[in-house]
């Protein structure tokens, strides 16, 4: 049975990763205790776990807050992702067997069957697409041996997910509520980052054991995320949060 502290931790973590709790938002003890029917000790335990993951920060005499985001942090996270993913991908291409190849094809098929979330942008659809997208990239590196590198890779992916959810969902919903059409540059960037063709090309390069092409395609694919962030800021005037 899940303890109250564990339940509070999982709920708060999901809300932060889904951008339902905005960067910099205060996590007030009285409100959280009322929402989760939880005492101070287990609540503090949950917040300390989130602080250890750098999803939450504490400020002396002010309490806990959702960690901020910034363009500099996104750039750092993307570079860290590549530092981890490139060698894992290369090792997987050297060691991968037929089962590994089948896993990649299956994961790509699942991703290709995902709904077009840009035409029906809901949190449920975005969660589904994100799970399939992560599953595809994990399948590419599955044959690599390092457990710790994969663990760190997943941690970086969680933080990138939070940034991406905040910079896609929040501005688009705000624009929709204000009756504004989404910016063409932003939508073009999103399509480029999420389209199936880039994933298919990457899959084929990996299955062909074409290391040079796979590395190039991975860098281009990952780099689109920063382009999306900049397009959002330009389209909606979103300020760059202090890290």
UniProtKB/TrEMBL annotation:
Gene3D superfamilies: GntR ligand-binding domain-like, Winged helix-like DNA-binding domain superfamily/Winged helix DNA-binding domain. GO terms for molecular function: DNA binding; DNA-binding transcription factor activity. Residues 2-69 form the HTH gntR-type domain. Pfam families: FCD, GntR. PROSITE patterns: HTH_GNTR. Keywords: DNA-binding, Transcription, Transcription regulation. It comes from the Bacteria. InterPro entries: GntR_C, TF_FadR/GntR_C, Tscrpt_reg_HTH_GntR, WH-like_DNA-bd_sf, WH_DNA-bd_sf. PANTHER family: HTH-TYPE TRANSCRIPTIONAL REPRESSOR GLAR, TRANSCRIPTIONAL REGULATOR, GNTR FAMILY. This is DNA-binding GntR family transcriptional regulator.
